[in-house]
Amino acid sequence: MNCPPLLDRAAQLTWRSLVVAGGVALSVLALAHLRILVLPVIIALLVSSVLVPPVRRLQRSGVPRALATWMLLLGSLGALIGVVVLAAPSVAEEFADLGPTVSAGVEQVKSWLVDGPLELSDEQINRYSDQVFEQLRSSGSRIASGVLAGAILAGEVVAGLLLTLVLVFFFVKDGEKICAFALDQIRPRNQDLAKALGRRVWEAIGGYVKGTALVALADATIIGVGLLLIGVPLVLPLTLLVFFGAFFPLVGAVLAGTVAVLVALVSGGPGDALLTLGVVVVVQQVEGDVLAPLVLGRAVRLHPLVILMALTGGAVIGGLIGAFLAVPIAAVAVAVGSELKAREIIGPASPPAAPPPPEVTVDGGPQAEPGTRHRADLERPPQPVPAARGWRKLFGRRVGP
Q1: Cα angle vertex 385, ends 379, 388, to 5°?
Q2: Which of 12, 17, 68, 243 is close enough to 220 for a disulfide, judged by CB 3.0 to 4.6 Å?
Q3: For 182-216, how does the pLDDT look when each residue is reduced to its tens digit (9 = 90+)?
Q4: Dihedrals phi, psi of 289, to nearest 5 degrees
Q5: Cα separation, 120 vs 111, whole angstroms
Q6: Where are the domains of the chain?
Q7: What does the pLDDT read at residue 79?
Q8: What is the pTM of this model?
């Protein structure tokens, strides 16, 4: 019995899709079991993409690479510890006041829904709010379990941090040697492809980290200044929330903006809440239309649907850390796919080139097509046309008597 071509093609496509999906699922499960090793490697790559350029500049200035790596790494750690020590008390105090303020804002919104033009009943509000809080509570428990799943013991957390620091040091100091050693293990005919893929991956990682940090800093600064001008309290924790929310595209901006609007509603009423909402919306539009394309450029080009799917998958697999790492991993996958497609390794095959026309020669070569001229005829200089003598030369016969 002959199978129809369409059904046969669909069966082949289904089989290949199942094989690919199975391979991806096995890879994800393996990475999930090895997250105590995989997460430090990914985080170290993200941090190294920021530290490598200044280390290279110091090296060009005459500083040995090892010394430059130590200087930059210790300086960054010292600055981070100093900021945490100096700002932690005030930030923790303001964050403690943020929760009750947000709860009060939620209660005001509920009262407006009951007494406002919508005229909803208390039962409807309580039912919907209970559903929302239940979803948030379950999501929070999943995130917390995802965060703590790989760190049941405190020793695992310390080991992960130490491993990340060690990996960052060696990635920055000996990154070129590590890449050269990895290339030596690849067949020579595939080394060019490996170099191109490595370059695209590194560009995607560096572009994402630096671009997202700059965009987050710009968003947090502009929104923080706007909140100060409006007179909203708790500006510092709200600004930090906006900054760190930028590393969770789409979702982080919505959550940070919602918290800022609720705080403004409690402190200054509906007018301040509307002004805060306007500032947040304008900043997000400027980010999406100007800042992100300008800063991120071609390094990170992801559709919003891809970002949402990556965030959801990352949160399910790795909790909060998985959601944080999902977008750069997706950017790396897109960069690798673009390079493979540019080299025609994946994607539709290009149509075969048309065969060249046969070379036309005078002797011993292929015959010319009918209606064409020989090369000798094409290369022969034009001959002058003799002057016509009489009507016979012009018309070939006598005209007249």
Answers
A1: 165
A2: 243
A3: 888 888 888 888 888 888 888 888 888 888 888 88
A4: -95, -25
A5: 9
A6: 19-342
A7: 84
A8: 0.64
